[in-house]
Amino acid sequence: MSDTQSTPVPNAPQLSDAEWRERLSKAEFDVLRKGGTEPAFTGEYTDTTTAGVYACRACGAELFTSREKFGSHCGWPSFYAPLAGESVRYIEDSSFGMKRVEVRCASCDGHLGHVFEGEGYDTPTDQRYCINSVSLTLRPEPA
């Protein structure tokens, strides 16, 4: 995981909340633009095993692949690494009395979820990118 940062994203689309609301559903807007969280075990990609690339639902930037997705049984899609180091950015999050690391799309600054370390999952990175399904679009690999 790269260093935590909180600087604005230079190439992020400069859209107003009203413009984002036109592009996104209420649930997508609440998560991607307002930092919300979808309820556990309700997202369309929680248990998906389809091979493909997961892109940001707001801007289309490719973020994760099915190769790094694993079954963490936490209620949200989990990945052990992003597609490329520069595809996401990290922000310290001390809300709700916890110290966490928020994960955002590096392209549009949309909230994706959080990344956790040291939970003991048998993955190459010992990280769990806990990502909201509603912030992603799965692009299946061609058959």
Mind explaining what this structure looks like?
The protein is mostly beta strands and 143 residues long. The chain has a domain at 68-143: Peptide methionine sulfoxide reductase (Metal Binding Protein, Guanine Nucleotide Exchange Factor, Chain A), CATH 2.170.150. It contains two helices and nine strands, in the order ααβββββββββ. The strands form two sheets. The protein has a six-stranded antiparallel sheet, with no helix packed on it. A three-stranded antiparallel sheet has the order 2-1-9, with no helix packed on it. Strand 1 and strand 2 form a beta hairpin. The longest helix is centred in the first third of the chain and has 7 residues, at 17-23.
Structure, briefly:
The chain is mainly beta and 143 residues long. It has two helices and nine strands.
Strand element count: 9
Note the overall shape.
globular
Count of DSSP H/I helices: 2
Estimated radius of gyration:
14 Å
